[in-house]
Write a structure and sequence with these properties.
Elements (H helix, E strand, L loop, with lengths): L28 H13 L1 H12 L17 H13 L4 H10 L1 H6 L13 H8 L4 H19 L7 E12 L6 H22 L8 H17 L8 H39 L4 H26 L19 E3 L9 E10 L5 E7 L8 H11 L3 E5 L7 H10 L2 E3 L8 H7 L2 H10 L1 H14 L1 E2 L3 H35 L3 H4 L1
Parallel strand pairs: 1-5, 1-7, 5-6
Antiparallel strand pairs: 1-3, 2-3, 3-4
Length: 491
């Protein structure tokens, strides 16, 4: 059984609309909670958001029967807090159990003031969100923000589009440490299966991992010779090859033994398909790395970039060079955002194995499907292509898309117009929005898998827009407090 929110208030519970915030506070929490409070207090907006929240409940869960689960409003508040404030689940647990105003926003009063959440409960519930549901909520939040800041309803939206890299939670990859990761997981998982069925073949699994790690360290520490003596260079190269061959030979023996054990267990006992798939997935990773190490070190081949994997745990991770000063490479995925002139993020897209120029048209199309009044949009040169300019000019009243390379006289005239120059100068403001996203939780994705990555990004975008909405309300409250005369002045 799930409820969006308990309709019966408890003894001593403060209504969310009555929660009071300090107008002088400079912390991130009050603006975020004020944004959530605004959603709750606006009846039409609240009903629409609550209707979307009901869709995240798994199909097998009955909304009206069974054991009560966590209220969906609480899940939404917790997810927003976690992503916008860049908290891990441990910090979130501490705050929802002990922060007074956060507990009021969650609906706790005097009667259940001693109620405490569990860590796994938070993890299981916050992961219920889907990118699709969050996208719908984001549109409602942005519309609420526009209602506060737009001077008139006919004012057109001016967008600015750019991309940045959201890092995945991985270590720096080399072929030998990826082989160790994969083989270690194979050993651990197969040993766990054997323990479940009382088999003793892998009782020395911890010792096997230590032996493998020693060989891994030997291969990792040995370096190429910098001597000018060719004979010494050849001797050192032979040592490098020998160290790597010993390492991959040990890994191959362990993987082969694990495959035989898995075949036996699968034939003798009932296993869940995911148990077999998980182990076979890591075996495939190990075998690929063994092959690539042998080709690179023993045969002197250069491994094509397209064959490389940069994490055995986060397989969607890409090796990205954006050309930033001091940042030679980033490990993660590109995320493209389209922000309006008020700082609200209208739309975002996770980009896999594509460059910016491949998503320019789809970003505008998908944004206009939600916000039809988007008539101006600016991009940087990374989005340029002749096809993009042709297609985007059909969709926009003003397209600011600087051309790469030498400009024709016609292009020079277009890019020197006052409106083009003004919009191009304003485009750099999107970097501020990107920085705000990174500061508020989107510098590194802490969730696993591509689905977790998409959910994490979508939740961070929603949370950022709610924080932006709350910041507007917080500024209004602060201004109202300044204008209000002090008690002794009124007397």
């Amino acid at each position: 059984m799930r409820q969006v929110q308990d309709k019966q208030m408890k003894l001593g519970e403060t209504d969310i609309s009555d929660i009071v915030f300090d107008p002088k506070s400079r912390d991130d929490i009050p603006p975020l909670l004020m944004g959530l409070q605004h959603i709750y207090m606006n009846e039409k907006l609240r009903k629409e958001v609550f209707a979307i929240l009901e869709t995240i409940v798994p199909e097998e869960v009955d909304l009206d029967q069974g054991r009560p689960g966590m209220e969906l409003w609480k899940i939404f508040v917790m997810g927003t807090l976690r992503h916008n404030l860049n908290w891990d689940y441990d910090r979130l647990l501490e705050m929802v159990n002990n922060h007074k105003i956060i507990r009021q926003m969650l609906g706790h009063g005097l009667v259940d003031d001693e109620y405490r959440y569990n860590l796994q409960t938070l993890k299981d519930n916050v992961r219920l969100f889907t990118p699709e549901a969050l996208g719908k909520i984001n549109r409602l939040v942005v519309e609420a923000g526009h209602f506060l800041v737009k001077e008139n309803e006919d004012e057109k939206l001016r967008g600015r589009c750019d991309s940045f890299v959201v890092e995945t939670d991985v270590h720096y990859p080399t072929d030998i440490n990826l082989l160790f990761d994969a083989t270690r997981k194979v050993i651990q998982l197969i040993a766990l299966l054997c323990a479940m069925f009382g088999l003793t073949e892998w009782r020395q699994s911890a010792s096997q991992i230590r032996r493998l790690k020693k060989l891994f360290r030997d291969a990792q520490k040995i370096k190429h010779s910098s001597s000018k003596d060719e004979e010494k260079k050849e001797q050192q190269k032979a040592r490098i090859v020998a160290a790597h061959e010993a390492y991959i030979e040990k890994a191959r023996d362990l993987v082969d033994k694990a495959k035989l054990t898995l075949v036996y267990i699968a034939s003798a006992y009932d296993l869940f398909p995911w148990q077999v798939d998980e182990i076979m997935g890591f075996i495939a990773h190990a075998e690929r790395q063994i092959d690539q190490i042998k080709r690179r070190v023993v045969h002197g081949e250069k491994i094509p970039h397209s064959e490389k994997v940069f994490s055995v745990f986060q397989e969607h991770t890409e090796w990205i060079k954006k050309g930033k000063a001091g940042v030679p490479v980033e490990l993660g995925l590109r995320v493209c955002i389209l922000e309006d002139q008020y700082g609200f993020i209208l739309h975002h897209q996770v980009i896999q194995k594509q460059t910016d120029d491949k998503v320019a048209v789809s970003m505008v199309d998908e944004t206009q499907a939600q916000f039809s009044d988007l008539r101006v949009c600016s991009f940087d040169k990374g989005f340029w292509s002749p096809a993009n300019r042709t297609e985007l000019e059909k969709r926009l009243d003003l397209l600011v898309l600087p051309k790469k390379g030498k400009l024709s006289l016609k292009d020079q005239a277009a890019q020197q117009s006052d409106e083009f120059i003004r919009s191009r100068r304003q485009h750099s403001a999107v970097e501020s929005g990107i920085n705000a996203l990174e500061v508020h939780g989107l510098d590194r994705c802490l969730d696993h898998g591509i689905d977790g990555f998409r959910r994490y990004v979508a939740m961070a975008v929603v949370a950022r827009n709610i924080q932006k909405l709350g910041a507007i309300l917080h500024a209004q409250l602060r201004e109202k407090t300044k204008r209000k005369p002090a008690a002794h002045e009124a007397a």
